[in-house]
Write a structure and sequence with these properties.
single chain; 181 residues; 3-stranded antiparallel beta sheet; two-stranded antiparallel sheet; OsmC/Ohr_fam; OsmC/Ohrsf
């Protein structure tokens, strides 16, 4: 299906999601705002820094680059975090656009995250406080086209950002515990 975008160039729409299903899911959230689910992941180390995580039958491979003593066979953990954020924002943008009945013809996210590792993962490097470690700044640029003015597309992106579960996980402190099995 082709349409005319803001640039008056015929473009095919991205594959849509089920709007009625989305509206039903939103209604469940309004009726039970305290509902929570639980995501589970099982991670196994293969050697060096290479890990395989099982997520609902899907494998997610993580490694470190050569300069950080990995084998560079897969993205690094911080890159996976940015990937999760990009995916979550894309889901949200798609959902909000669907809710607002704005067909999209292009959606690409470009993410950057500034990270340092002076602590060497706690293996004898600098000993910073927890708030000084991890990704310290994130920049996301969204390349979006759809059947709406630029201002509406920006509203869609900003609303999706505001309600992004992964975006808010990154922005907000959360309860976190770790223990031996």
């Amino acid at each position: 299906m082709s349409t005319v975008t803001n640039e008056s160039t015929p473009k095919a729409h991205l594959r849509p999601i089920d709007r009625e299903g989305l509206l039903g899911f939103a209604e469940k959230g309004r009726n039970n705002p305290g509902a929570r689910g639980t995501n589970t992941v099982h991670t196994v180390v293969e050697g060096q820094y290479r890990t395989i995580s099982n997520v609902r039958g899907h494998e997610v491979v993580v490694d470190e680059p050569l300069h950080l003593f990995g084998e560079d066979t897969a993205p690094a953990p911080a890159e996976i975090v940015l990937s999760a954020l990009g995916g979550c924002l894309a889901v949200g943008i798609t959902a909000v656009a669907t809710w607002k009945q704005v067909p999209l013809s292009k959606l690409e996210l470009h993410l950057e995250g500034d990270i340092g590792n002076p602590a060497a993962w706690g293996a004898g490097g600098h000993e910073p406080s927890p708030e000084e470690m991890g990704i310290q700044a994130v920049r996301v640029r969204v390349d979006i086209e759809g059947d709406a003015p630029r201002e509406t597309l920006d509203e869609i992106v900003q609303r999706a950002n505001h309600f992004s579960p992964i975006g808010n996980t990154i922005r907000n402190p959360i309860d976190f515990e770790i223990s031996l099995l």
